[in-house]
Write a structure and sequence with these properties.
homodimer, alpha/beta, Rossmann fold, 4-stranded parallel sheet
Chain lengths: 274, 274
């Protein structure tokens, strides 16, 4: 077994470096990675302290191969310091910035912090507005709320609606409402009254019944609500409804919140608000 | 003025490619970029349709320079097709995967969808648990809730606590509760009773009073609550409390939700739960 320490180092949050680094490392099956993320490394002093710390960790595993460093650092001095450390380097900033400068025939500003910074008050406000909207319309539906929603997620209890709505709000600034299908809704053959005027905005979520059973058992053990039979009935009924009313839908069983949110954005041709 | 069309193309959500691409482009001031993101391009057919669409768009702006394509595509055939299109290419996958294969002395699986996929049921459950916890402890505080929280954000109304808590839950699986400082809390010199047993878990958020005034005006125009004088008084009082009780704190004024969440993770030495 190949063992490697992995360091994601960024002058900002490190969320992007970590995410791209992880997606590259996920392509390798037979290596065991021990990963750490270090955000906000934006001064030579911080880099010095970090590298001393890394050196200590590396010395703990003397028989391991050299560590991998995935970094995104704008400042030349900090970057040079990191890149001089004996490791295998993947430099997300420098690898591309020079060729981009050539292509665009203009010099990069080389300013730290233009990435995730508050793009503008306006876009921040849109994001907050969307989050507040989503929180106010989570399981507590009003006609007014549905009217103002960009999209309405429909599904049985615990099918993944709430986190998907929150992600749509945080990542894309969308006003995502959700409508939980109750046992009453599911025993009827017609679309719930409140949804009838908003059919074009509906998106369904379903989930594998065994998975749903496990999730609900955590919440209300040994209840009718959580029983496998009830979960099977509810999901089958919900899917019938989606088919009958031609509501596009997805299963949340094998998808992350990111994938669900992005799939809904594409399927509903939604325009992000910032 | 230099005008460029920019395409972020991914076989998954595109969130990472877009984010890294944006951070590179933000380094260039004098270029106007017209950006579009295309997720889930994972078959040759989808790539063909997309490239035909891109070609149409490019022909609309005949006097513009060639487009930029930022891509992350694992499948060789799909990638080759994209990379053969006449554009300036930044290939986030292929640029690094070969050298990683050499370094790790093992072949990449070259499987699409190992990035943002549900890492495991367990980590999905942790994320959901954190989101549910955060929703249940947003402004509605119980002793039990504070007991189980990983971190408790404290601040005046509209200082950015809720979105930051949600991001901590979604991105890091952390149970983030929040405690809004009421005018009563602020008129006292002692820490609110409910927080007294949890001082080690507190993190403060403050905000520029003029910014707070604008945010609150949107919500309750011309109220005492939203008045600049009241916003100044509340934020000054809150900051005094943070100093008096040595509660670490940050201003949300110029920071994104991502930056706030990551800063809190680091400052409180929190361990992500997945």
């Amino acid at each position: 077994m190949n063992n490697r320490r992995v360091y994601f180092i960024s002058d900002r949050t490190g969320i992007t470096s970590e995410s791209l680094g992880e997606s590259l490392l996920n392509q390798f099956e037979n290596v065991h990675f021990k990963k750490r993320t270090y955000p906000f490394i934006d001064t030579v002093e911080k880099a010095e302290t970090l590298l001393a710390h890394i050196q200590e960790e590396v010395e703990e595993d003397k028989d391991w191969d050299r560590p991998l460093i995935f970094s995104s650092i704008v400042d030349r001095d900090v970057r040079k310091m990191i890149n001089d450390y004996p490791a295998f380097h993947v430099d997300f900033y420098n690898t591309f910035i020079t060729s981009l400068e050539e292509e665009l025939q203009t010099e990069a500003r080389r300013l730290t912090g233009v990435t995730h910074g508050l793009r503008s008050e306006e876009s921040y406000d849109k994001r907050m507005e969307a989050v507040n909207f989503t929180l106010n319309h989570d399981d507590g539906i009003t006609d007014q709320g549905l009217q103002n929603a960009d999209v309405i997620l429909v599904g049985v209890s615990r099918s993944g609606k709430t986190p998907t709505c929150l992600y749509l709000a945080l990542q894309y600034g969308l006003r995502a409402a959700n409508y939980p299908l109750t046992p009453e809704d599911l025993s009827s053959d017609i679309l719930p009254r409140m949804l009838q005027n908003h059919q074009h905005k509906l998106f369904g979520l379903t989930i594998d019944s065994e998975r749903l059973h496990r999730i609900r058992e955590e919440r209300r053990p040994d209840s009718h609500y959580a029983s496998l039979a009830n979960c099977q009935k509810e999901t089958a009924r919900a899917e019938e409804m989606f088919h009958r009313y031609q509501i596009p839908f997805l299963s949340s069983t094998h998808k992350s919140v990111e994938e669900l949110a992005t799939s809904i954005l594409v399927a509903c041709k939604l325009k992000r608000r910032f």
